[in-house]
Amino acid sequence: MKAPHNLRKACASALSDEVMCAAVGKMANILSFVRGAAAASYPGFEKLRDWGRDRKMEVSANLEFYARRFAGRLEAAGGVAHFARNGPEALKIVTSIAADLGAVSAVKSKSMTTEEISLNEALLDAGVAVTETDLGEFIIQLAGEKPSHIVAPAIHKNRAQVAQLFHEALGSEPGLGVEELVRVARRALRKRFLAADIGITGANFAVAQTGTIAMVTNEGNGRLTSALPPVQIVIVGIDKMIPELSDLPGFLTLLTRSATGQAISSYVTIITGPRRQGEEEGPRQLHVVLLDNGRTSLASGPFRQMLHCLHCGACMNNCPVYRTVGGHAYQSVYPGPMGDVLSPLLWGMEAYGDLPDACTLCGRCEEVCPMRIPLPDYHRKLREIREEAKGAPPGLKALAPALLAGHPLFYRAGLGIVRRILSRGSRLPSAILPAVAGEWTICRELPEPGQGRDFRSWWADRQKGPDRNGEKS
Amino acid sequence: MNRPQIVERYIRMARIAGTVVECVCQPDLPLRLAEVLGQAGEPKIAAMSATGWPEGFRQSIEAIVVSSGFEVRMPCKDPGGYTWDIGGVEAASVGLVWCEHFLADTGSLVLATGQGRGGLSTLLPPISIVLSDATGCIEGLADYFQQIGQRLPSRLTLATGPSCTGDIEATMTRGVHGPQKVVHFILCD
Fold first, then answer.
1. Which in A5, A70, A301, B179 has the greatest CB count within 10 A?
2. CB-defined contacts A:B, below 8 A
3. Residue pLDDT, tens place only, B76-94
4. Is the CB of residue B155 less than 8 Å away from at least one CB of chain A?
5. What is the CA radius of gyration of chain A?
6. How many angstroms separate the CA atoms of A414 and A408, rounded?
7. Could you tell me which of A144, A82, A91, A139 has the C-alpha nearest to residue A113?
């Protein structure tokens, strides 16, 4: 699907963008702090996490049942359900709905699932102009860039850059402040909302019991997207199912407290079918595209709990790697720890096999994940699978340390040689180490070897007894 | 929690989210409402919901709005139900609705669609004025769902504070898409 990318190179290039690194690091830091405070201030949050995991276990064990149940209830409420096995099928469904309507413009509220299937590009090819309406997404769409953060996609751009961008693309005055820039975006986007033929949204939750879609936004763009255009299309991964309406309050609490530390987002939009008879607003048609795209096969494999992910971003906000390199380095729709695991599973090891290396196995992501997904364990498993797939017999490079450490005699002899090589004044290390130790030496300085004895000879002398420098036995 | 405690909790949570909450007794409402309307900018157009108000209440609110110099736009009743001119709502500087339920746990207004409910008046104008009775305050979303069973409206919105964004330099800014100011009058005895 995509040319394999080089994590190391991408990280190096991301790190050279100091403005971006500082901005993403700061944002992640803030979000990590508020998430901690929000979790601590909610009595029973840990129990709620257990409950959430158990409910999602129930869903991932019966994905098809809940998706079908949802589709039935949606249609009973007047909506239209579509099943898409993969991205191309979903794109075909959406573009043919657009073609039937003769649609030329669409507004969209932020949705990772639509990015997963590259919906904007497909709609553009079909002659439908798509406007991202989340302010951050709108900014990077105008700039032709990719999101650097899942919650704040344009956090890498400062106000001067945004002012210049708006000046060029929207004709606003140059050099505006944040407040004025937000007004400019409001006016520009409102016009597009009013003119749009289709509103496209994702969903945070799909309630199987009632055929209900729930989505959260702070800006209110999700609400506008689902209220103004005459037709709404929702693209939802079948993993977003929750069994019953009574599950929604608990999941909303877990999501918003983990994502932004809020007790609730500014807007939660709960949609059950299209506009009803005699109502004066809302879309006349509601289409929901239920996307599989590898989810069913995930459900039966060893990475099943990835289907429980709420896309809250807590794992990345707390990840030392993500906080350092930002979202661009991952070169995937899904960055951070959840992306390290999900990208190779959805799009193959070939293209994304090195992403599980973007992890220090510190375990922080699992600690904060509202669904308690064992992310470090999954990283390790993916590395194992990748190495096993290579299938190469261990070379001399791998055998040598094992041999040296395997027998006291070899170990002592090897230690002596190394000490001599590393002794002060020797030029040998800088000449041979890069060849022997490879990339390990690129960013590490070899410490000066100690002046004194090595541990083994010190221990041997100590065992002899008499000269213990006053130590007690 | 008893009623006053629940309402108190609502007020605390809603204020954290940025809602302007005022408890008023009915005789004081005209004055307070006129004051808020007086602070609204041009044009002097108000979008109002046609239904959902307690008996006779809409007319008295409408009278206050008109006497504050506003032109009122409402969904129109016709044989097939309600319709309204969205461009007309878009032009309004203020929106007014009655909100039956609001949630103490999160400081949220529960806005349900229905014939003539005029939900866009809480979304398109820059100022949103919402009126409720103190008896409409319930603890959380779970309690609300318990009350309505599975009879969900086509759109149910939990609105908590004004529309806001932190997308430029993490600077919190209000009114990016929806209202920048939300005023909630709670009628108390």
1. A70
2. 184
3. 999 999 999 998 899 999 9
4. yes
5. 27
6. 10
7. A91
Is B3-187 a CATH 3.30.70.990 domain? no
For chain B, first and last CA: distance in Å? 19
| B139 to chain A: closest CA residue | A249
Tens of pLDDT, residue by residue over A143-175, are 999 888 888 899 888 899 999 999 999 999 999
Single-letter amino acid, residue B70: F
Q: Exposure pattern of B126-159 as b/e (b: 16+ CB <10 Å)? A: bbbbbbbbbebbbebbbebbeeeeeebbbbbbbb
Pairing of strands A198-201, B173-174: unpaired
- pLDDT-derived band at B150 (thresholds 50, 70, 90) equals confident
CA B43 to chain CA mean position, Å: 19
Q: What is the pLDDT of residues B87-134, one digit of tens each?
A: 889 999 999 999 999 999 999 999 999 999 999 999 999 999 999 999
Cα separation, A408 vs B156, in Å, equals 73
Q: What are phi and psi of B186, to 5 degrees?
A: -105, 120
ipTM over 0.95: yes
- Domains of chain A in sequence order: 7-298 (3.40.50.10420), 397-464 (no CATH)
Please answer whether residues A275 and A267 qualify as being in contact, where contact means their C-beta atoms are separated by less than 8 angstroms: no
Q: Which of A189, A277, A282 sits opposite B177 (nearest CB)?
A: A189
